[in-house]
Design brief:
This protein has about 170 residues and is an alpha+beta fold. It has one domain (about 5-170). The protein is about 30% helix and about 25% strand. The strands form three sheets. It has a four-stranded antiparallel beta sheet with strand order 2-3-5-4. The protein has a two-stranded antiparallel sheet with strand order 1-8. Strand 6 and strand 7 (about 120-125) form a beta hairpin. The longest helix is centred in the last third of the chain and has 24 residues, at about 130-150. The protein is globular and about 45 Å long.
C-alpha cells in the first residue's frame, strides 16, 4: 500500500460567492456556482482602490454580457486596457456611474418566492451580482481584519478563526 500524499489547495478569492454572500436558507435548486465560475474564469473583479470593475476582454459581445450581469446601461462606457500583455475591459465607478442610479453599492436585489409550507410562501432576496463582486473584493482586502476583530468580539453569530483551506488527499 502506497503512502498517502496531501496537497494543499489555495482557494481563489471568488470562493466568497459560494459561501458568504448567499442567504443562509437557499433552496436546493439555487446555486451561485455560475457567477463564481464566470467571475473566476473571466477574471471579473472589482478593484476597491481604483473603484473599477475589470475583466478579460474577449470581444465586444462578451463585454455586453458582463455589462448585463452588472446591470449597467449601454451609456456606461467600457474602456480597453493592456495589463501585463493581456487585454482587459474595465468600467470605472467615477467615470460614468457617478451621476446615475448605479452609485457605489446601490442595486436592487433579486427577490424570489419560495415555498415555506404547503400553503405558505416567503420572499428570499439575493444580492445583485454587482454587489456580490464588490463583497469579493471587500473580503479579500479585509479578511485578516475580519478575523482579528471577530476574535475580540463576544457577541457574534459566526466567528471566523482562520481563512479556509482545502486539502486534497491522494490515497492511491
Amino acid at each position: 500500500m502506497k503512502s498517502k500524499s496531501t496537497l494543499s489547495i489555495n482557494l481563489p478569492k471568488e470562493r466568497v460567492l459560494l459561501s458568504e454572500v448567499s442567504p443562509f436558507e437557499v433552496p436546493i435548486t439555487f446555486s451561485n456556482r455560475g457567477l463564481y465560475k464566470f467571475s473566476r474564469d473571466n477574471k471579473l473583479s472589482f478593484d476597491l482602490s481604483e473603484q473599477k470593475f475589470k475583466w478579460l476582454h474577449l470581444n465586444d459581445k462578451h463585454d455586453r454580457v458582463v455589462r448585463f450581469i452588472l446591470g449597467l446601461p449601454d451609456a456606461v462606457k467600457i474602456e480597453k486596457v493592456d495589463i501585463k500583455g493581456r487585454k482587459y475591459s474595465e468600467i470605472g465607478i467615477s467615470k460614468g456611474l457617478k451621476n446615475s442610479k448605479y452609485i457605489l453599492g446601490y442595486t436592487i436585489p433579486y427577490n424570489y418566492k419560495i415555498i415555506q409550507k404547503a400553503d405558505k410562501k416567503r420572499t428570499l432576496s439575493i444580492l445583485h451580482p454587482y454587489s456580490q463582486l464588490m463583497w469579493v473584493s471587500f473580503y479579500d482586502k479585509y479578511k485578516d481584519l475580519i478575523i482579528y476583530y471577530m476574535s475580540k468580539s463576544k457577541a457574534s453569530l459566526r466567528k471566523p478563526v482562520k481563512i479556509s483551506a482545502c486539502k486534497f488527499i491522494d490515497r492511491r
